[in-house]
Amino acid sequence: xxxxxxxxxxxxxxxxxxxxxxxxAGPAAGEPAPPALNWSDCGxxxxxxTLEVPVDHADPAGPTLPLALVRHRATExxxxxxxxxxxxxxxxAAAGDLVRGITSAPDGAGPYSPxxxxxxxxxxxxxxxxxxxxxxxxxxxxxxxxxxxxxxxPELPGMAPREVLLAExxxxxxxxxxxxxxxxxxxxxxxxVARDMDLVRAALGEERISYLGQSYxxxxxxxxxxxxxxxxxxxxxxxxxxxxxxxxxxLDATLDQAVSAERVLDSWFATCxxxxxxxxxxxxxxxxxxxxxxxxxxPLEVPASGAVPAQRVDGxxxxxAARTAVFAPQLWPVLTRALVAxxxxxxxxxxxxxxxLTRNPDGTPNGLGEANVAVNCLDRDVPADLAEHDRNAAxxxxxxxxxxxxxxxxxxxxxxxxxxxxxxxxxxxxxxGAPPVLVVxxxxxxxTPFDWSEAMxxxxxxxxxxxxxxxxxxxxxxxxxxxxxxxxxxxVDGTLPAPGTTCPGAPTTTVAPG
Length: 514
Description:
Rossmann fold
């Protein structure tokens, strides 16, 4: 659930088949059990495999697509509990990349604790339409570069005139209609992915699966627990969405996210002022607004570097960089460095920070935004009346003076989307029959406001909310040892923390080292 990848195509963080909630677990009627997976070595401690699944789960004998899987094997096979499926969110983020990161991360800094790596095979399934699982491709690299070079105006809702946003939305819709198989485009919803998960579970030879989902991955987990409760061993949902608001009150959800992000930016300003961080003297808010206005009038030029072409850093780029930085406290000092450098005429750090979510590690533009939109437009109830979008954009600007423009018209792209989902699955997400779920919510989360955690907990029967104080999107392995311990205990032993438990978050600073 990412906000700000492109003015109309962005995300908000961040059910095609007509099956009722709580239907029988396992393959659909008449659908054969999946074959055992044929794993091959693909790195130190890593295996890779593919599993063919129906494109349309209502037609199990019809066309198939290959799901890409990456597995990090349990480091102590004798102590192995089973398989832990993981999803990092998006929608549009590749879970396989997350699992590969286990072996590339510095010691002690990986996405999963040593205890989980000892006890579980950690399995990342790229969701259908994402990454190596028939990833959605709607635009050429050149068109993606054009999107990234869009002249964003921080004074306009949507950061561009509405007619421009509508034209861009039509371009993306046309590109997806032309570039993606129509059957697949109609079957990318979250409940389709949940059904894929259960086929993966069966192919792994597991009667029950453990799951750790973050951000949008919490909606996927709640969907799986509702559809397949008997196949859940233990489940953790970190930085959850409010399933009802997210799916049925889409415009209000984007407003919630803009306000939550603005509050985190306000915390950055307050911390910067208290620490004398080096930006803005005693008035970082005024300095930020002045820098946005100055660079909008006279942008900075950043020369090409590797695969990244020359870039133009204007006021909109400053807003986008700040919107990215409020994801995690670890990025706060980077924002300070970016703003100080921009004031001195160097826009390179701003450009790099604003590209964190839009470019691959090699500098080429990624397709996360395309996959994100393709899933969201099936999952979410987006009004067709443009007046509703006008109202929402005006409310976002009024409620979040610095980030509201970026969030305005964020769902406009779904108004004329070329794929329909008449049987959209919207719960209720009760998880009835599954073990109690651990929900982890951050008090100051820029993407999934804390009351969304409370809503998810209220919806899932028997679930327990663990609160992480402080800022950041996501809590597990994010500098909160108390959270890490609670998550590990639930996944390993099935032990829930006491209701009402809170954990301190990672310390925050805006001071750039050195």
